[in-house]
Amino acid sequence: MRTIAVVVAALALAGCSSSRALPSGSTALTLFGPTPGLESWTTIVADGFHVHAPEVDRACALSGVRDISAALGRRAVDPPERGEELGRTLGSAMEGSCRFMRGRAYGGHGRTALLLLRSDDALVVDLPQLEPGRTDRVYRVGEFTASFERPLTKPLALLERGWVRAMRLPSGVEYELFLVLKPVAPTPGIESVQVVTRVESSGR
């Protein structure tokens, strides 16, 4: 197991300095609040991996270390199932430690992060991945989180109520959002902000 730890540690050091660019899209986002309007926002979907602020347009290379470590453990430890379990645990710990080296992470293993960006504003939604074979799911409050941040990592409003619907289409997964967010601190003239939008994932 020590060999696995050394290899995974090396991957961690290399991974924290490398990443791959993510495709981005755009969507029309409707805001109901003190200044309602319909505006175009940039969208990024981190599905099954994580990204770090402020470079949320790049996937962290350490997102895959959990599976790599599990494969190494299966080969190095007898019985293989036990080695796989130990490797996966070690890989998860390494992935988690990346947050201390590169800052706050969005998304992760088994999670999907929807990031909508406009200038210094960001709407971040984090929810469980749509399960393989499932084509439609509605997420309710308690199953996902949402925040309005300015800039990233600085929440101004948090989810109070709403829902997210995920639909698997031939082109990828499409998400419909209806969110009501409440300011973190009392803000004169603003009791809540409502968001209605749709985000598409290409599945790449």
From the alpha carbons, calculate the radius of gyration and give it in angstroms: 19 Å
How many distinct beta strands? 13
Tally of domains:
1
The secondary-structure class comes to: alpha+beta
Description:
With 204 residues, the protein is α+β, with helices and mostly antiparallel strands. It has one domain (2-201). It has helices spanning 2-15, 65-76, 80-102; strands spanning 19-21, 25-32, 37-47, 50-52, 58-60, 105-107, 111-118, 121-128, 136-140, 145-149, 155-169, 172-183, 193-201. The strands form three sheets. The chain has an eight-stranded antiparallel barrel. A two-stranded antiparallel ribbon has the order 1-5. A hairpin with a 5-residue loop joins strand 10 (145-149) and strand 11 (155-169). The longest helix has 23 residues, at 80-102.
What labels would you give this structure?
204 residues; alpha+beta; eight-stranded antiparallel beta barrel; two-stranded antiparallel ribbon; 3 helices; 24% helix
Write the layout of secondary structure elements.
Blueprint: H1 2-15, E1 19-21, E2 25-32, E3 37-47, E4 50-52, E5 58-60, H2 65-76, H3 80-102, E6 105-107, E7 111-118, E8 121-128, E9 136-140, E10 145-149, E11 155-169, E12 172-183, E13 193-201
Concise structural overview:
The protein has 204 residues and is an alpha+beta fold.
